[in-house]
Specification:
The chain is an alpha+beta fold. The chain folds into two domains: 1-41; 49-199, Immunoglobulin-like. The protein has helices spanning 2-40, 133-137, 142-148, and strands spanning 49-58, 75-84, 90-102, 105-112, 115-117, 122-131, 150-165, 168-183, 189-199. A hairpin with a 2-residue loop joins strand 3 and strand 4. The protein starts with a helix and ends with a strand. The model has no long low-confidence stretch (mean pLDDT 79).
Length: 200
């Protein structure tokens, strides 16, 4: 009787063991699938977005003078720049640099403050660039631009930093090239075109 009872219990144990193994494998597969989904959705590093919201030019009227502008009178360009972080992690950027161009020549350069954009946060900063008036006045096409009432300038902004998503840390560099046409009289923006490039 004991032998027959043991023989009858063996298939039951096998079925229980197979069920237990099946459940374990199912749980492992579900966890693996969840990890894959999280990796390709939540933990995947997305491109930060940099945007030039506005440009304010102060004392552009100095270019209307026939002679060289008085000393200690500078033209300044204030660039309102925002950095949007669409990731589930922080984006730290210790270096921010903006250059202003006119007719292909660099007329101003400035460094912005370091900063950090938290998860799904947009950080704004104002970068003030002092314009080298002598370089602007030396351009042969300045007179025609003043006569038209419009002045087209270019800006190049570079933000270098690091994206941190849990244990993942990736270097990220964002560049923004903009062409801005400014009304000399009103000092307002007539036209703006920007292109962003991200390197991860």
């Amino acid at each position: 009787k004991e032998a027959s009872t043991s023989a009858a219990a063996t298939p039951i144990r096998r079925r229980r063991c197979m069920k237990c193994c099946g459940w374990t494998v199912s749980v492992v597969l579900l966890l693996a699938a969840a990890c894959v989904v999280l990796f390709f959705s939540v933990f995947r590093v997305k491109d930060p977005i940099i945007r030039l919201n506005n440009v304010i030019v102060n004392r552009l009227d100095l270019l209307n003078t026939v002679t060289t502008p008085p000393p200690r009178r500078n033209i300044t360009v204030v660039a309102d720049v925002s950095v949007k972080n669409p990731n589930y992690g922080s984006f730290r950027y210790p270096i921010t640099r903006t250059s202003i161009f006119y007719r292909g020549a660099v007329i101003g350069d400035a460094r912005g403050p370091p900063g950090m954009s938290r998860s799904h946060e947009t950080t704004r900063m104002n970068i003030t660039v002092d314009v080298n008036v002598d370089r602007v006045m030396s351009q042969p096409d300045l007179g025609s631009d003043i006569g038209s009432g419009l002045m087209t300038m270019g800006s190049f902004t570079r933000v270098g930093g690091r994206m941190e998503v849990l244990v993942l840390k990736k270097p990220v560099t964002i560049t923004l090239n903009c062409t801005v046409t400014i009304n000399i009289t009103s000092q307002g923006i007539e036209q703006q075109n920007c292109k962003q490039k991200v390197q991860i």
